[in-house]
């Protein structure tokens, strides 16, 4: 069975929706952010501060390229779509689902300092600019698009329903 790869902006609920979806489907759950923290031995914000954006993106991309699993819901970091190699590898055995969330909702969930939240973006770039940069990449890699709903279980249910509707094997 294929993996389900959740992509989308930071603050869309990929981790909480991913856990709920994995529970519903009896899949394993993997949060790529957790793998990055384990590999670096530091929180995301500290990796960005001490090693810089390029090193963070390289580490994230390498983890995405090396991740091998089955029957797993994978919550990617919002910047995973910046790594073409990682996305190609993940999609070899997975279906990418874009949790699309309005920019206004994402903005409400973000702190003033995006680095504090561990968001990989060039200094001075605000959430609107990050959204504009990444939106075409989410669209490029998405096999399915699901509008994020209030409540992670509702969104998880919707992902499951959309996949069944288009005839994807779960």
Fill in the keyword field for this structure:
170 residues, Rossmann fold, alpha/beta, five-stranded parallel sheet, 8 helices, single chain
Unreliable stretches (pLDDT < 50, length at least 5) are none
CA-atom Rg in angstroms: 15 Å
Strand line-up in the sheet with most strands: 2-3-1-4-5
The CATH class is Alpha Beta
Number of DSSP strand runs: 5
Count of structural domains: 1
End-to-end Cα distance, whole Å, is 7 Å
Q: Specify the CATH architecture.
A: 3-Layer(aba) Sandwich
- Output the helix-strand order: EHEHHHEHEHHEH
**Biggest β-sheet, characterized?**
5 strands, parallel
CATH superfamily: P-loop containing nucleotide triphosphate hydrolases
Shape: globular
Assembly of the depicted chains: single chain
Derived structural class: alpha/beta
Brief digest:
This protein is an alpha/beta fold. 52% of the residues lie in helices and 14% in strands. It has helices spanning 14-25, 32-40, 44-51, 53-66, 84-92, 103-109, 127-141, 152-165, and strands spanning 3-7, 28-31, 72-75, 94-100, 144-147.
Protein model, in words:
The chain is of the alpha/beta class and 170 residues long. It has one domain: 3-Layer(aba) Sandwich (Rossmann fold), CATH 3.40.50.300. The protein is built from eight helices and five strands; from the N terminus they run βαβαααβαβααβα. The chain has helices at residues 14-25, 32-40, 44-51, 53-66, 84-92, 103-109, 127-141, 152-165; strands spanning 3-7, 28-31, 72-75, 94-100, 144-147. It has a five-stranded parallel sheet with strand order 2-3-1-4-5, with helices on both faces. The protein is globular and about 45 Å long.
